[in-house]
Amino acid sequence: MASSAPRKRAAPVKTEVDATRATDLYRTVARIRAAELVLQRHITEHGFGGFWHPGLGQEGVQAGAVAALRTDDYMFIAHRGLGYALAKGMSLESLFGDLFARTVGSTGGKGGGTVHFVDPERGVLGQGGAIGSSFVLGAGAAISGQMLGTDRVCAIFFGDGASSRGTWHESALQASVWKLPIVWICENNGWAVSARISEQSPTENIADRASAYGVPGVIVDGQDAIAVFDAVTEAVDRARAGHGPTLIEAKTMRIRGHYEGDRQKYRDDLLVGDEIPRDPLGILREHVPASVADQLDDDARHEAESVLATVLEAPRADPSIIYKDVWS
Amino acid sequence: MTEQRTQESPGDGVSTINYALAINHAMAEEMRRDSRVWILGQDVGRMGGVFGVTRGLLDEFGPLRVRDTAINETFIVGAAAGAAMTGTIPIAELQFADFMLIAGDEIFGKLAKWRYMHGGKLSLPAVVRVPTGLLGGVGAEHSQSLEVLGMHFPGVKVVLPSTPADAKGLLKSAIRDPNPVLFFEHKGLYRVKGEVPDDPEFLVPFGVAAVRRRGDALTVIATGMMVDRTLAAAEVLAREGHEVEVIDPRTLVPLDMDTILESVQRTGRAMIVHEAVRTAGAGAEIASRIHEELFFALDAPVWRLGASDTPIPQDPELEQLCIPQVPGIAEAMRGLIAL
Fold first, then answer.
1. 3-class secondary structure for A185-245?
2. Which residue in A215, A276, A286, B338 has the fewest CB atoms around it within 10 Å?
3. CB A148 to CB B118 under 8 A?
4. Which residue ranges form the domains of chain A, and what is each CATH number?
5. What is the pLDDT of residues B265-319, one digit of tens each?
6. A-to-B residue pairs, Cβ atoms closer than 8 angstroms
7. Domains of chain B, first to last
């Protein structure tokens, strides 16, 4: 039985944190961060054919949540960054390949943005170009998992903006009644394009809504990857055991614009300089030796730079790809 | 089974059953054949569907394969899309074809596009069953013929059966098709009976038009409930000495233009009759293609009959005046032959 108020998870106690887990999370967050920064720089300097929605500063949610999933668990990603897909095991080459419409992309060169990332073998099923459309799709994947006799869970990432869609309401009700194995992970970064959360929601927390749907609501510090991992692990266990969905709200922040290049004139809380407040890397460093963390930062930077160079040299698809894969 | 009491059996592997039961049998047979096939929709379980089409399926297949949903069309089609891309074969029932628009993104944004967008790595073998057309007093929001939408969004197939046998054979093909299919079953045809093969391997292929009547004076392409009306009008014209060829495309995507063009090449005249609004209906597309391909073979311009450019009034008498009737179709045939 869900309690009426969402539960706030406490920050993990340093001594209880699994050192290997912390290092693994650090590596993932560092890889996502390096990819974010190399893309940001490239797009600023050279422009870009598509739209890139940066996930800078939100890497802790993405890395922490995905680490709580099995490789075969289904996942519908949100549009802010590539962290979800990278953390689930897709190669950086395939993701950059999609962004720059190169044949090495996961879609073979149709490319153009985060909506195209896909890897069914790793459960990465895509992201809706209509924000909030993953709720209903994810419910269907969860049903398939059950019908095929697996214990797969479906994780659905979304932002505070998507939480206003009717698709959320329809899915939350039906998934709760059917006890579908779903974990909803809301990255509440405070902004839906130009609208503040206070202009979209009468309650402070998205998770406040959980009790109305008869599911647990959990609020977690999204900058703390380990706290996110713990919260999502508990929800995944619950879903896998047949007890139904959980709504997790990870409080995070939007560092960049809605898209890279957005001048954000609507915003009065713009940050000055490059520092990310409550940086998920800094929080993880409390649990990882400095020399290890430094090395992981270097490795990640090297990976992102060399993969971007490789991808930019990779061929674009033949225009005949326009007519490919309309039909099975 | 109570259903069998309504069946008459002429023997030789053929049963005389109505269109609704033919659809029911198609689903039951495919669900027996393949455990991945399942159904979701409002009232499809305990009630057996608002039109009784899924009657008996909950008892045979259980609540995990015949799922009664809440009033949530977006969920119904969206969950079908998510399930299709993860290895099961959902049949989603909407209570009225009009409600496709409530699930517009799920049909036209997801089912139609997600294989393409994802470089062919996903398949979406879902069927969306949508009861279409006039029923008699169900009103402007429950009476539309919206099949042309499927033609305008590449990636979904569009099926419109006009007989019980086609309803069964086409639905079975739809369930076995690896692509998403919009299945427009006509509400006005549910109680029409016809001979339907019992063979569980009886399939009607997509993209193969049925020539319902042979003739040399004029080719009429008719869909859905307009097929029977067009055949009745052709009978009238036959008594007047004009043999009209009647073609039922059965599927609009894919569309069997070869059969249509071959016929029009012979007759030199063509008309399209559909229940959908005449303006920008499927008939406009078919007429354009005939004009493009056969301009010099035509003895007259291609005509179209369709519904008036109005919403459908709820009064049963008024609503019939909005769509083509047998006398009007016959009159148009005479007019076109005389040109």
1. EEEECCEECCEEHHHHCCCCCHHHHHHHHCCCEEEEECCCHHHHHHHHHHHHHHHHCCCCC
2. B338
3. no
4. 7-177+189-200+212-315 (3.40.50.970)
5. 999 999 999 999 999 999 999 999 999 999 999 999 999 999 999 999 999 999 9
6. 145
7. 12-197 (3.40.50.970), 210-338 (3.40.50.920)
